[in-house]
């Protein structure tokens, strides 16, 4: 936070406020920043640190004497202070004696668009988990990487083949600070890789009451190739990965030790950080604990969440790489090489998920269906048990509701649901009150949000067009012709091939008929990045992008470049329907659909992941809360695609489009608004991060904390 303009004494607290991501999910705090300068708020992509560097000092001086601004300022600062002192919060009230934290290890954290250290759902889940831990007063520290070049920025040239651009993070323009040791020097922690020391420095990010400690290998003592080790998220080959994962696992434990933090529970969010258990075993054995006892202790204090049934999502290293990198680490653990390798053995490799499964006492998948799939998938780890008795449970994901629901809907909740809906948002019954919102009010709010999405797309296009190098066909492909009145389908997520972004194009002429139907037009907005090494995913982007440029689609297919957290907010709040058509059961949970549903955007989705639990048809006087593309299973992928695409077309033609265009004389689609309300009612509590974190506390954390 260098270079900020001087802040007048009366509003000096702004400097503290921008320094903690708490503001990002707090409505009055966001209003306060908008009041500082709305144009800067927009142009900095909601980055108040940057905003305070760019704002005219005279404007700050004026604001420091503006009664309205000051009254909002005082209110925000008071609630900031109250939230940071945790006395009144849920966890502290329930379990005042439990003060040692949960150490939450994750390779990604999706906290805010200004910190590009996430690639998709896993990271957003980690970020949301931290924010909710803060809201509930759960003591938790996050451990991960800062990745100075982050995940990439996406650019699409006319041929549609995604390009990856890496920008260097400007540490002065985000709320982040170096962690110092007791002498005031930068804290440096060392990990031995291949017999050689690698040094990492540590950065601290604050999300409410939660601290995150993020490692960075870009320090002077390291050789150039080591300095780059943590430069990018998921960059590089298998060797880079084992090195990164050693730093995350082993280094992460050492960071906490160096800071004197003594966790009661260690949560591995996905297998990337599983080497952590080896470091903890080594510590115990070196401290004199017999190995079997050490293993019991580590198991008792470790929780593990697995996130995907896609085989490539589970890192497994060849033994020669393990030998090279771990050297004689096992001797310090008091085990033979054979015993050491056996901890992660799976199909002749050292598998990170298997290591985590064996060394954690509580394990879970991220939806009920994914729990079941995981029990089957990992049954070989428990050879003497049938799949249904494999000890992997399920806690269905959630999203941090205060971060994802639009401010306009929150204002409506204030008026029609309850004044304290925020504190009680995981009480399902409270949301019955949604039915008291007049249809017209909800519909108007939705139309405004849709307008914001289209304005966002327009502004992006204008910027790119002005910057030059954009062809006119790309202007159309990126959404210039989007129509605020047309039924708008959103499809935005990582372009992993199992998500089948191109399914909708299986019968191009049928799709064209749907899009161009007279008086009932439909348009589709796509966004998403493919992993740089995923050629299949990039081909999907290319296909969609070419359709988007094809005049026969008439500008009704758009691909918005560079999907990220910032854009995700506009999309999940502003489209009319959220489409998800993964190849079942590959979508372990899916969370973007939850964000959409909470904003009154119904899902049109395969019954996979969370939607298999959430979806219900119209019944007993209740409207449906969305649409199901089914749960059929064909071993032949082509047959599966054929069946699912037929179902999808039929649903659009017979149900979705007719319901959307069934209007009263004032243009309000009452039947549709009922589905919107039901989507909200059945998601706001049930798929909230609050419900989820409480389940983690009860099932995964408390047994170890006590
Ligand atoms: C929520 C979110 C995701 C996860 O989307 P899925 O539908 O679960 O694949 C990915 N990226 C961003 C930016 C998100 O906000």
Structure description:
This protein is α/β, with parallel strands linked by helices. The protein has three domains: 9-84, no CATH class; 99-397 and 693-705, Glycogen Phosphorylase B (Rossmann fold), CATH 3.40.50.2000; 405-687, Glycogen Phosphorylase B (Rossmann fold, 3-Layer(aba) Sandwich). The protein is 43% helix and 13% strand. The chain has 29 helices and 21 strands. Strands 1, 2, 5, 6, 7, 8, 9, 10, 14 and 15 form a ten-stranded mixed beta sheet that branches. Strands 18-17-16-19-20-21 form a six-stranded parallel beta sheet, sandwiched between helices. A three-stranded antiparallel beta sheet has the order 11-13-12. The radius of gyration is 25 Å and the shape is globular. It starts with 12 loop residues before the first helix and ends with a helix. The mean pLDDT is 96. The structure holds pyridoxal-5'-phosphate (PLP).
Taking pLDDT < 50 over at least 5 consecutive residues as the criterion, the unreliable ranges are none
Radius of gyration: 25 Å
Considering DSSP H and I runs of 4 or more, what fraction of the residues is helical?
A: 40-55%
Mean pLDDT over the full residue set:
96
- CATH class of the largest domain reads Alpha Beta
CATH architecture of the largest domain: 3-Layer(aba) Sandwich
Quote the beta fraction: 5-15%
The helix count comes to: 29
**Count of β-strands:** 21
**Largest beta-sheet characterization:** 10 strands, mixed
What would you give as the CATH superfamily of the largest domain? Glycogen Phosphorylase B
Small-molecule binders here are: pyridoxal-5'-phosphate
Query: What's the domain count?
Result: 3
CATH topology of the largest domain: Rossmann fold
Give the class from helix and strand content and strand pairing. alpha/beta
- Rounded to the nearest angstrom, the distance between the terminal CA atoms is 40 Å
General shape:
globular
